[in-house]
């Protein structure tokens, strides 16, 4: 296995023809305006080797995803099963000129009063704050913001599943061992080791700051105590995965995605583009943290222990912040 190689890439820039649908004077520009005016909605655009998409999210849930068809005048609308059940006539193949604003409003009115959707947004936990952060440093961003969000639910790509397995089999073992060591150290305090693979496939946010640093942002809600203190494992995995992408490829991808999102308006067009990529920095953002919680003390313990197990330089440039709607970001 050690002699096997894999190719890793990262670029979620969609095609210019697809992007132009959302740009000023584009056929779907009305959808951009609609999302911008609804504080509970946000975009996710991206691609992989097989398709590209424009998605509308409400917190953690995907209301709809637009993909292209072989006919340039026809788009396909898909979405999460729960939304398709509410209004099935919205979904399927539609003429590109079709305005479905009323249908989206009907869905939003339905989920607002249906408690089964609360966990995605209305409970004001993870989805709620991820949406706020994404909009604040994206579609509603200011040219003076310290950073902008380039991508969310960010993943690196592989040619196939075999190559992905090879890559993860090279990265994951040390984190699995660390989880086991934590359990042996104190299973009551840090949890039992259940032989599960460490999470490390999907990064909450990939951002870029004014100095040219790529920020690998993991988000946690303040009430997610175990998620907070175990986050060094997750953050370390993301860092290893994204730093395995050739630096020049990553730099080119980030700048291409930034340029595209500025043309659409998903990032403020006046936000100044850095001259080059300076560094890659792992970041933890926690919303509404309760300082009476034990999470910070345990987090510090695990981070200290991880440096002994994984090396003194492990997460040595980690940025840690608390976020509140009232005060914004502050050091955690």
* Number of strand segments: 13
* Morphology: globular
Radius of gyration: 21 Å
The CA-CA distance between the termini, in Å, is: 41 Å
Low-confidence stretches: none
Q: Let me know the largest β-sheet.
A: 6 strands, mixed
The H/E string reads: EHHEEEEHEHHEEHHHEEHHHEHEE
Biggest sheet strand order reads 7-9-10-11-12-13
State the secondary-structure class.
Answer: alpha+beta
Number of domains: 1
Number of helices: 12
What fraction of the residues are assigned to beta strands by DSSP? 15-25%
The overall pLDDT average reads: 93
User: How much helix, percentage-wise, in residues?
Assistant: 25-40%
Output the keywords:
13 strands, 332 residues, six-stranded mixed sheet, globular, alpha+beta, 37% helix, five-stranded antiparallel sheet
Give the secondary structure arrangement, pairings included.
Layout: E1 8-9, H1 16-19, H2 29-37, E2 42-47, E3 52-58, E4 61-68, E5 74-78, H3 81-86, E6 92-95, H4 101-112, H5 126-136, E7 147-154, E8 157-158, H6 161-171, H7 173-185, H8 187-190, E9 203-209, E10 213-221, H9 225-229, H10 231-243, H11 247-264, E11 279-287, H12 295-310, E12 319-324, E13 328-331
Parallel strand pairs: 10-11, 11-12
Antiparallel strand pairs: 1-8, 2-3, 3-4, 4-5, 5-6, 7-9, 9-10, 12-13
């Amino acid at each position: 296995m050690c002699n096997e190689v894999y190719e890793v890439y990262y670029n979620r820039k969609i095609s210019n023809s697809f992007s132009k649908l959302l740009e000023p004077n584009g056929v779907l520009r009305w959808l951009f305006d609609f999302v911008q005016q609804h504080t509970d909605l946000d975009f996710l655009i991206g691609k992989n080797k097989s398709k590209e998409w424009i998605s509308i999210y409400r917190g953690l849930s995907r209301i709809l995803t637009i993909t292209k068809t072989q006919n340039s005048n026809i788009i396909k609308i898909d979405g999460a099963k729960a939304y398709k059940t509410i209004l099935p006539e919205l979904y399927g193949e539609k003429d590109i000129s079709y305005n479905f604003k009323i249908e989206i409003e009907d869905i939003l009115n339905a989920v607002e009063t249906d408690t089964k959707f609360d966990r995605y947004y209305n409970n004001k936990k993870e989805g709620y704050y991820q949406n706020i952060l994404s909009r604040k440093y994206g579609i509603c961003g200011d040219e003076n913001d310290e950073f902008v969000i380039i991508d969310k639910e960010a993943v690196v790509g592989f040619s196939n599943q075999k190559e992905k397995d090879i890559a993860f089999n090279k990265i994951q073992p040390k984190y699995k061992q660390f989880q086991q060591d934590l359990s042996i150290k104190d299973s009551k305090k840090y949890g039992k080791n259940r032989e599960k693979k460490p999470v490390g496939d999907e990064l909450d946010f990939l951002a870029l700051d004014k100095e040219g640093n790529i920020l690998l942002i993991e988000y946690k809600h303040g009430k997610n105590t175990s998620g907070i203190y175990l986050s060094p494992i997750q953050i370390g995995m993301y860092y290893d995965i994204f730093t395995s992408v050739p630096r020049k490829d990553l730099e080119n991808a980030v700048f291409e995605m930034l340029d595209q999102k500025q043309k659409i308006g998903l990032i403020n067009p006046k936000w100044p583009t850095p001259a080059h990529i300076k560094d890659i920095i792992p970041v933890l953002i926690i919303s509404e943290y309760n300082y009476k919680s034990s999470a910070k003390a345990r987090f510090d313990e695990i981070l200290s222990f991880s440096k002994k197990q994984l090396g003194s330089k492990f997460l040595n440039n980690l940025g840690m912040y608390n976020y509140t709607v009232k005060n914004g970001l502050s050091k955690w």
